[in-house]
Design a protein that fits this description.
By secondary structure, the protein is an all-alpha fold. The chain has a single domain, classed as Alpha-glycerophosphate oxidase, cap domain (Helicase, Ruva Protein, domain 3, Orthogonal Bundle), CATH 1.10.8.870. It contains 7 helices and no strands. The model has no long low-confidence stretch (mean pLDDT about 95).
Length: about 120
């Protein structure tokens, strides 16, 4: 918490989720202050954590991140819809997606999410 200047709930989440690899995730906070931002105000999941998942945990699609990696889609069905655009923007930034690809991914992932959330 002190070293990376993050909230207690974020630190606890990282340790619970990643164990001794939480330091690797936290290194993203030192790279860019934006990486400390939560993807949703009610949850301890950060932009840096998403970037870590893309690089080291083979996060393949926004759905994969939202449901399999963070499990947010299973714990907060409303929040998952709110953060989808942010997740798509992170993917776009990391993988150099075009605006057209972002729109396509948003449509495809939203359709799949609606089926998963009934």
């Amino acid at each position: 918490m002190d070293r990376f200047k993050i909230d207690r709930d974020i630190a606890k989440h990282l340790v619970k989720t990643y164990g001794d690899r939480s330091w690797d995730v936290a290194k993203y906070f030192a790279m860019n202050p934006e990486n400390k931002e939560r993807i949703h105000e009610k949850h301890p999941i950060t932009v840096g954590e998403i970037k870590y998942q893309l690089k080291y945990e083979m996060g393949i699609t926004p759905i994969d991140i939202l449901y399999r990696r963070t499990r947010l889609g299973f714990t907060d069905g409303e929040a998952v819809y709110q953060v989808l655009p942010k997740i798509i923007n992170i993917f776009a930034q990391e993988f150099k997606w075009t605006d057209e690809r972002k729109v396509q991914e948003a449509k495809e992932n939203l359709t799949r999410m609606r089926k998963m959330n009934f």
